[in-house]
C-alpha cells in the first residue's frame, strides 16, 4: 500500500487484511482487464480531462458546500453540507458511473450491467449509458423494485432494461449475485459497473478514486470557508462509496472520519470477517458462515457487508462507524427538511441522525462538521409519507 | 500426489469418469440419493455444502441450496452424513469460501478429511487467493481442485492447471451451473489443459444430457453432471428415480 491513509491497495488488492479478488476463474481475466485499463486511464491526462469535463458539463459539478445555519444553531455546532443531492440524477452515484462508462468505452465494450438497491446507482448507470450510447441492464431485488417503483420507471425511460431479482432476500445482495452471474456469460462485450466501493479488486479502489472528486472539491471549498480541517467529516455507509469519496479529501488531515450505518445493516459493528461478492470484508453472517439479511428502512443501506477499505479504516481506527435506527432517521429527515429546506434521501438522513444524536456528546458543542449530503429525498417521499401516516393512525 | 489424484489416475486407465453432483442436505434422503448415484455407476461424487450466496450457481442449484439451508444443513451435518455412509467412491466437496473461512480453514479441512472427503472445489477462490486453503488442506491430504474457464488465457492455464490437485475442472462454457445446449467451449478448454498437464481433466457446467456427456467424453477424462440430476431430486424424493435418471449418463460414457 502507498503512504497516504487512503492510498493504493497492495498488489493483491488488499487494504490491510481486507479486499482481494475472490471471483470465479471465468471472471479473473475480466477483473485484470478492468484493472489494467483503469490504471492506464487514470494516469492518462486526456481521460482525466474527459472525466472532469463530463462531470461539469453533464453532471453539474462542482456541487456546492452549504453552511447549514439553522441546523447549526439547533445543535450548537457549525455544520456544513457537501451537496451531492444537487448533482445530476440526485446523488453522488453519477461520479462513479461516468468514470466507469468512459472506461467501458475505452475497453471497447458496448454494454454495461449494474446492480442497484435504492435505484440511485441503477438510474445513474442508465443515465450514463444513454449519454455514452451503451446498452444497459440493471439487476434489482424484487423487494426494491416495489419499494422504488418510480426509479424502475426512470431507468426504463432512460432506455435500460431492469431485471427483477427473485432469489434470496430479493434485495441488494441478491442483485449483486445476479449481476455477477450475468457478467460470467457476457464479459467479452460487457462491463460490470459496480456501484460502490466493494466487490473484487480493482473495484473498491477504482470506485473510491472516481468518488474522490467529492472530497477533493470539499477540501478546497472548506478551505475557502475558513475551515480547512473540519473537526468531523460524516457520511452514511452502505457499501460506502459516498463516505469513501468524501473521506479521501480529509484522510491525511486531522479531521475525525465518521461512517454511519443502518442499525440493521451494520457490518462494522455486528459483522465478522468473511468473503462475499469478490471481497474479504466484514459481513453480517450467522454461526455457520451464511450471510444474513440486512434490514433497513433505506434500500440503499440494505447490504450485509461494507467496502473493504472501510473495514480497514475501522481496524486501524482512522475512521469510526456507528449505527443509527430507523426512527432516528425519519426524525432527522423531517428536521433537515423543516429547518434547512433540504429533503435528504433516507440513506443520507442516517448521517444527519447520528449528528443530531451525538451533538453535545460524541460531537462537542462548537465543533465544525462536514456532512456529505449524498442524495436527495425525492425517491423516498412516498415511503416516508406512508411511514408518517402509519404513525398518525 | 494426493490420494484423490492417485485414485482418479487409476480410474482413467479403466473408463471415463462419471461424477454426479448433489447438494448435501437438499432432501431428507440426500444420503440415499448419493448411494443411488453410486448404484447408477458414479465413479466419484461431488457433494455441495450450501451457501446463502452461490455466485457460480444457476437457479436449480440455488434452489437446492435454499432447501438445504432451510433444513438446517451445515458443514458439520454434511460431514457427519458422509462419514456414516462410508461411500465406496471418492467424495469431493464443493462449497464457497465463506463456509470454510468462517469455521476456520484448518478446522474445516480436518473436518472434511476426517469425514472421508478426498478433495474440495471452491469456485469463488481463484489461483491468487487459494494459498491459505491449500496450506490448510495439505496436512489432512485434501486435494484442492481448481477450475479453468474458456476465458483463461494460455499462460494462465499452465499456472492454474499446474496448481490443481486431484483433477482439473474444465468449465465447458462461460456460464454458471445449469442447463445448456451442446458442449460449449469444452473441447478447446480441455485441449489447452492437456497441452500443459497430464492431471485427469473433467468437464462440467451445462452437461445436461447423456448425449452431451458422450460427446464431451470423446476428449476428456470425465464429466461432472450437476443441475440435470439435482433437478430430479427437487422433483422427487425417490432415490430410485434419481438412479434411473443417472444411468443413461453412465451408459453414455462407456
What CATH architecture label of the largest domain in chain A applies?
Answer: 3-Layer(aba) Sandwich
Strand order of the largest sheet of chain B: 1-2-3-4-5-6-7-8
Mean pLDDT of chain B: 97
Shape call of chain B: globular
Number of domains of chain A: 2
Query: In what range is the share of β-strand residues of chain B?
Result: 5-15%
Q: Could you list the spans of chain A in which at least 5 consecutive residues all have pLDDT below 50?
A: none
Report the strand count of chain A: 14
- In CATH, the topology of chain B is named TIM Barrel
Describe, in plain words, how this protein is organized in 3D.
The complex is a heterodimer of chains A (393) and B (254). The model of chain A has no long low-confidence stretch (mean pLDDT 96). Chain A has 2 domains: 14-55 and 93-203, Rossmann fold (3-Layer(aba) Sandwich); 61-91 and 211-392, Rossmann fold (3-Layer(aba) Sandwich). Chain A has 393 residues and is of the alpha/beta class. Chain A is globular and about 55 Å long. Chain A starts with 13 loop residues before the first strand and ends with a helix. A 6-stranded mixed β-sheet of chain A has the order 3-4-14-9-10-13, sandwiched between helices. The longest helix of chain A has 22 residues, at 203-224. Chain A is built from 15 helices and 14 strands. Chain B has a single domain, classed as TIM Barrel (Alpha-Beta Barrel). Chain B has an 8-stranded parallel β-barrel with strand order 1-2-3-4-5-6-7-8, surrounded by 9 helices. Chain B is globular and about 45 Å long. The interface between A and B is large, with 38 and 43 residues.
What layout of secondary structure does this protein have?
The complex is a heterodimer of chains A (393) and B (254).
Chain A: E1 14-15, E2 18-19, H1 28-42, H2 45-57, E3 65-67, H3 69-75, E4 78-83, H4 93-106, E5 111-116, H5 120-132, E6 135-141, H6 142-147, H7 149-157, E7 161-165, H8 172-186, E8 190-192, H9 203-224, E9 232-236, H10 241-247, E10 256-262, H11 267-270, E11 272-276, E12 279-283, H12 308-316, E13 319-324, H13 326-340, H14 346-358, E14 368-373, H15 381-392
Helix pairs in contact in A: 2-4, 4-5, 4-9, 5-7, 9-10, 13-14
Chain B: H1 3-12, E1 17-23, H2 30-39, E2 45-48, H3 59-70, H4 75-85, E3 91-94, H5 97-103, H6 105-114, E4 119-121, H7 131-138, E5 143-148, H8 154-163, E6 168-171, H9 186-194, E7 201-204, H10 210-217, E8 222-225, H11 227-235, H12 239-253
Parallel strand pairs in B: 1-2, 1-8, 2-3, 3-4, 4-5, 5-6, 6-7, 7-8
Helix pairs in contact in B: 2-12, 3-11, 4-6, 5-6, 6-7, 10-12
Amino acid at each position: 500500500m502507498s503512504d497516504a491513509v487512503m492510498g493504493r491497495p497492495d498488489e493483491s488488492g488488499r487494504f490491510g487484511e481486507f479486499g482481494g479478488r475472490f471471483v470465479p476463474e471465468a471472471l479473473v481475466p475480466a477483473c485484470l482487464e478492468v484493472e489494467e485499463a483503469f490504471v492506464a486511464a487514470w494516469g492518462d491526462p486526456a481521460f482525466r480531462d474527459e472525466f472532469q469535463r463530463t462531470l461539469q458539463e453533464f453532471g453539474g459539478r462542482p456541487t456546492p458546500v452549504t453552511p447549514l445555519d439553522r441546523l447549526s444553531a439547533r445543535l450548537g455546532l457549525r455544520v456544513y453540507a457537501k451537496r451531492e443531492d444537487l448533482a445530476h440524477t440526485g446523488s453522488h452515484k453519477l461520479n462513479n458511473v461516468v468514470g466507469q462508462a468512459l472506461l467501458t468505452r475505452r475497453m471497447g465494450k458496448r454494454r454495461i450491467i449494474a446492480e442497484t438497491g435504492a435505484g440511485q446507482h441503477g438510474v445513474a448507470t442508465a443515465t450514463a449509458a444513454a449519454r455514452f450510447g451503451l446498452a444497459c441492464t440493471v439487476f434489482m431485488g424484487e423487494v426494491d423494485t416495489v419499494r422504488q417503483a418510480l426509479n424502475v420507471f426512470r431507468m426504463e425511460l432512460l432506455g435500460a432494461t431492469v431485471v427483477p431479482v427473485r432469489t434470496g432476500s430479493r434485495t441488494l445482495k441478491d442483485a449483486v449475485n445476479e449481476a455477477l452471474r450475468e457478467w460470467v456469460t457476457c464479459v467479452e462485450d460487457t462491463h460490470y459497473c459496480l456501484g460502490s466501493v466493494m466487490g473484487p479488486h480493482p473495484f473498491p479502489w477504482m470506485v473510491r478514486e472516481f468518488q474522490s472528486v467529492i472530497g477533493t472539491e470539499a477540501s478546497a471549498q472548506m478551505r475557502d470557508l475558513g475551515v480547512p480541517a473540519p473537526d468531523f467529516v460524516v457520511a452514511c455507509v452502505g457499501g460506502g462509496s459516498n463516505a469513501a469519496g468524501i473521506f479521501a479529501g480529509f484522510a491525511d488531515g486531522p479531521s475525525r472520519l465518521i461512517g454511519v450505518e443502518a442499525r440493521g445493516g451494520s457490518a462494522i459493528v455486528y459483522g465478522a470477517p468473511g468473503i462475499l461478492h469478490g471481497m474479504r470484508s466484514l459481513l453480517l453472517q450467522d454461526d455457520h458462515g451464511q450471510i444474513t439479511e440486512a434490514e433497513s428502512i433505506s434500500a440503499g443501506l440494505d447490504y450485509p457487508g461494507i467496502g473493504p477499505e472501510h473495514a480497514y479504516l475501522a481496524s486501524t481506527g482512522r475512521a469510526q462507524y456507528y449505527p443509527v435506527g430507523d426512527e432516528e432517521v425519519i426524525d432527522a429527515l423531517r428536521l433537515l427538511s423543516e429547518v434547512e429546506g433540504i429533503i435528504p434521501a433516507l440513506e443520507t438522513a442516517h448521517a444527519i441522525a447520528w449528528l443530531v444524536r451525538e451533538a453535545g456528546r460524541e460531537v462537542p458543542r462548537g465543533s465544525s462538521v462536514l456532512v456529505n449530503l449524498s442524495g436527495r429525498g425525492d425517491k423516498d417521499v412516498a415511503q416516508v409519507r406512508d411511514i408518517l401516516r402509519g404513525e398518525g393512525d | 500426489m494426493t490420494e484423490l489424484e492417485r485414485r482418479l489416475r487409476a480410474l482413467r486407465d479403466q473408463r471415463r469418469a462419471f461424477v454426479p453432483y448433489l447438494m448435501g442436505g437438499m432432501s431428507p434422503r440426500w444420503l440415499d440419493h448419493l448411494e443411488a448415484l453410486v448404484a447408477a455407476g458414479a465413479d466419484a461424487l461431488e457433494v455441495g455444502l450450501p451457501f446463502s450466496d452461490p455466485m457460480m450457481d444457476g437457479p436449480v442449484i440455488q434452489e437446492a441450496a435454499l432447501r438445504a439451508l432451510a433444513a438446517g444443513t451445515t458443514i458439520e451435518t454434511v460431514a457427519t452424513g458422509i462419514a456414516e455412509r462410508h461411500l465406496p467412491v471418492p467424495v469431493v466437496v464443493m462449497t464457497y469460501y465463506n463456509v470454510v473461512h468462517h469455521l476456520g480453514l484448518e478446522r474445516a479441512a480436518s473436518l472434511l478429511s476426517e469425514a472421508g472427503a478426498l478433495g474440495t472445489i471452491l469456485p469463488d477462490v481463484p489461483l491468487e487467493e487459494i494459498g491459505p486453503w491449500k496450506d490448510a488442506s495439505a496436512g489432512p491430504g485434501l486435494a484442492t481442485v481448481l477450475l479453468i474457464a474458456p476465458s483463461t488465457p494460455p499462460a494462465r492455464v499452465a499456472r492454474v492447471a499446474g496448481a490443481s490437485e486431484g483433477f482439473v475442472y474444465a468449465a465447458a462454457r462461460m456460464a454458471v451451473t445449469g442447463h445448456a445446449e451442446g458442449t460449449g467451449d469444452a473441447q478447446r478448454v480441455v485441449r489447452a489443459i492437456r497441452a500443459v498437464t497430464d492431471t485427469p481433466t473433467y468437464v462440467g457446467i451445462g452437461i445436461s444430457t447423456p448425449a452431451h456427456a458422450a460427446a464431451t467424453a470423446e476428449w476428456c477424462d470425465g464429466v461432472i453432471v450437476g443441475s440435470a440430476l439435482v433437478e430430479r431430486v427437487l422433483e422427487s424424493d425417490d432415490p430410485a428415480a434419481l438412479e434411473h435418471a443417472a444411468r443413461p449418463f453412465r451408459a453414455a460414457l462407456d
